[in-house]
């Protein structure tokens, strides 16, 4: 904490041995639930008292507490050399309710509950999908490990729909070759680490990313640690592994306050801090030969003449290289084989889009045209604790009634709308910002309690003429929510019915074997519906939408696609009847976002498509856009 840590999370591997069935913190003898049902409330009371002690005696507030660690996996047995505890999904619900009661009895209002910390994002989604509304409503954060399926966006879809903060609470990677080469030299582990970070920040859209086993016993053949030291020795010596420098390429520069932004390269993670104007681009090259590419920076109105460059290779450990020139709003780079390179671009700015909200920073010293909900007596402007300027909006719920703030506009055009607001809250769990479209909640995010101002971003699709309501909400029980500097802007989406929320395909069309495509509500990433392709072993099927290019320039087709078909599924774009670009879809069953960029001339036809060859399986599509 003295070194600047401002977020502390608590988690538990196992109950104390005396509360367990096996009297062992490694797990039950047969891998089943080990916490005795006799001690459920004793366990949650114990956790509440520990949380209270950290807060009252040491000034350490857990933002959230997770009671579980890979709870439904079958490997927690008493023979383990690590503490663990199997907890069925049904018993997780019981414990969540008990912990909520224990927190209340102990007077803990500034620590939320996180769950389920499953082994993979798909396992976490499976468990959470079975939770009751009461259990889901008791959570303030989703924690997941991302072993086996980093890059699956399905849990992101679930979390964003429910309005939860998302954390990758554990991932550890190493060198998966045999025999393991020298981990102080080999880039294998670092490149595996880069792939995991990239997938979790861009597809899962994790708000926090935590590495497991940063320090490792050197008396082992593993290669997970960022630092190794002999646990059996008192020599106090240690060795820095190559993965330490691989991690540094990301963690040194992508800091709190940054927003992950789109990058078309599958090995590129890009982040931007709009308050400081710094852009960070981390590019990995896992290949065995050098790779040259160009970074398109045309989205920025102001750019410096050069970027700082940092690089890790088998022979270099996070070394700073000569600055790279920025020319014609592009950065041309050559990435050495098996390398991770970070480009830091300071002094950027963008042309601010038209803000569709009025009195967005409350500088009129009044709320209008914002509306206080449900009562004006608990919402007012304030000159205290502003993000910028002289005024902000202060929402102060009472012990018996919630309070909120909203502004409604009519969508001027069809497209993707982005609501941005800066907010701070003294409420640990329950304060939210959100967007409704046509009277239906389309997006919401939790506001972090007790950590100062943060920038919150939500995107929704809306059709011209629909009502868009942006809002802030504070639950009953006291505390405050302060909102400042908000904006609502639109980016054209030339595709209609992009999320299939009409419940029908049109104006999308099916081809090849049209009866094998349609709309369903079985696997939406967000909202209520998704489109499906159900090819058979003898019949292929496709889905497409065609528009006329409104202007000459660069276009980007984005879509979330999931499939259980190993190969033969792709998406792409045709211009004037000729394929301009395509990309293969990963067949692991999880949603991933695909992004394809191409050029077109005004008046040309653009056909965006998803296709599956003839084979048994399924494909689902959601949240497509062309801009």
Description of the structure:
This protein is mainly beta. It has seven helices and 37 strands. Strands 1-2-3-4-5-6 form a six-stranded parallel β-sheet. α6 (188-202) links the parallel β5 and β6 (208-211). α1 crosses α2. The longest helix has 19 residues, at 40-58. 44% of the residues are buried.
Strand tally is 37
Strand content: 35-45%
Radius of gyration: 25 Å
**Largest beta-sheet details:** 6 strands, parallel
Task: Classify the secondary structure makeup into a structural class.
Answer: mainly beta
Low-confidence stretches: none
Shape: globular
Spell out the blueprint of helices and strands.
Blueprint: E1 8-11, H1 40-58, E2 62-66, H2 89-105, E3 112-118, H3 121-129, H4 133-137, E4 141-145, H5 154-162, E5 165-171, H6 188-202, E6 208-211, E7 215-217, E8 227-229, E9 239-240, H7 242-251, E10 259-261, E11 268-273, E12 278-285, E13 291-296, E14 306-313, E15 316-325, E16 330-335, E17 339-345, E18 371-373, E19 379-382, E20 392-395, E21 403-410, E22 415-425, E23 432-437, E24 440-446, E25 454-462, E26 467-474, E27 481-492, E28 509-511, E29 517-520, E30 530-533, E31 541-548, E32 553-563, E33 569-575, E34 578-584, E35 592-600, E36 605-612, E37 619-626
Parallel strand pairs: 1-2, 2-3, 3-4, 4-5, 5-6, 7-8
Antiparallel strand pairs: 8-9, 10-11, 11-12, 12-17, 13-16, 14-15, 14-17, 18-21, 19-20, 20-27, 21-26, 22-25, 22-27, 23-24, 23-26, 28-31, 29-30, 30-37, 31-36, 32-35, 32-37, 33-34, 33-36
Helix pairs in contact: 1-2, 6-7
Short structural summary:
Helix content is 13%, strand content 37%.
């Amino acid at each position: 904490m003295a070194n600047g840590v401002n977020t502390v999370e608590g988690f538990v591997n196992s109950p104390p041995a005396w509360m367990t069935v096996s009297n062992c913190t490694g797990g039950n003898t047969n891998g089943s639930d080990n916490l005795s049902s006799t001690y459920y409330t004793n366990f949650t009371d114990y956790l509440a008292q520990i949380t209270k002690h950290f807060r009252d005696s040491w000034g350490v507030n857990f933002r959230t507490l997770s009671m579980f660690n890979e709870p439904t996996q079958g490997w927690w047995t008493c023979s383990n050399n690590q503490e663990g505890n199997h907890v069925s999904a049904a018993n997780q619900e019981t414990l969540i309710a008990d912990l909520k009661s224990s927190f209340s009895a102990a007077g803990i209002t500034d620590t939320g509950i996180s769950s389920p910390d499953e082994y993979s994002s798909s396992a976490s989604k499976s468990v959470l999908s079975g939770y009751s509304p009461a259990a889901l409503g008791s959570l303030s954060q989703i924690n997941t490990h991302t072993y086996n399926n980093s890059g699956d966006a399905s849990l992101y879809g679930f979390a964003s729909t429910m309005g939860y903060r998302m954390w990758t609470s554990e991932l550890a990677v190493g060198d998966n070759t045999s025999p393991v080469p020298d981990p102080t030299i080999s880039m294998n582990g670092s490149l595996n680490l880069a792939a995991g970070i990239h997938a979790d920040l861009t597809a899962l859209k994790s708000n926090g990313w935590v590495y497991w086993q940063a320090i490792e016993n050197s008396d082992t053949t593993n290669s997970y640690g960022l630092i190794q030291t002999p646990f059996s020795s008192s020599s106090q010596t240690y060795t820095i592994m190559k993965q330490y420098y691989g991690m540094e390429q990301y963690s040194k520069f992508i800091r709190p306050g940054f927003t992950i932004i789109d990058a078309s390269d599958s090995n590129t993670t890009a982040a931007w801090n709009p308050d400081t104007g710094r852009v960070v681009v981390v590019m990995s090259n896992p290949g065995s030969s050098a790779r040259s590419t160009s970074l398109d920076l045309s989205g920025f109105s102001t750019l410096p003449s050069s970027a700082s460059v940092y690089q890790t290779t088998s022979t270099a450990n996070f070394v700073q290289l000569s600055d790279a020139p920025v020319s014609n709003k592009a950065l041309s780079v050559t990435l050495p084989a098996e390398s991770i390179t970070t480009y830091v671009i300071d002094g950027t700015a963008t042309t601010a889009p038209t803000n569709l909200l009025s009195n967005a920073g409350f500088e009129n010293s009044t709320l209008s045209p914002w509306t206080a909900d449900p009562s004006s007596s608990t919402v007012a402007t304030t000159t205290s604790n502003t993000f910028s300027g002289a005024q902000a909006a202060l929402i102060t719920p009472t012990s018996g009634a919630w309070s909120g703030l909203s502004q409604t506009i009519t969508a001027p055009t069809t497209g993707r709308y982005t609501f941005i607001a800066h907010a701070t809250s003294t409420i640990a769990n329950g304060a939210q910002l959100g967007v409704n479209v046509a009277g239906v909640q389309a997006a919401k995010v939790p506001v972090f309690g007790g950590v100062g101002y943060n920038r919150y971003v939500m995107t929704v699709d809306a059709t011209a003429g629909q009502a868009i309501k942006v809002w802030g909400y504070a639950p009953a029980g006291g505390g405050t929510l302060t909102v400042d500097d908000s904006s609502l802007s639109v980016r054209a989406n030339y595709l209609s019915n992009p999320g299939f929320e009409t419940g029908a395909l049109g104006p999308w069309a099916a081809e090849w074997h049209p009866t094998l495509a349609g709309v369903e509500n079985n696997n939406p990433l967000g909202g209520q519906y998704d489109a499906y392709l159900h090819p058979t072993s003898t019949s292929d099927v496709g889905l497409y939408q065609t528009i006329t290019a409104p202007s000459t320039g660069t276009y980007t087709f984005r879509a979330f696609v999931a499939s259980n078909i190993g190969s033969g599924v792709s998406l792409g774009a045709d211009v004037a009847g000729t394929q301009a670009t395509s990309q293969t879809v990963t067949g692991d069953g999880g949603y991933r976002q695909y992004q394809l960029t191409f050029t077109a001339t005004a008046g040309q036809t653009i056909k965006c498509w998803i296709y599956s060859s003839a084979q048994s399986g399924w494909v689902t599509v959601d949240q497509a856009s062309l801009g």
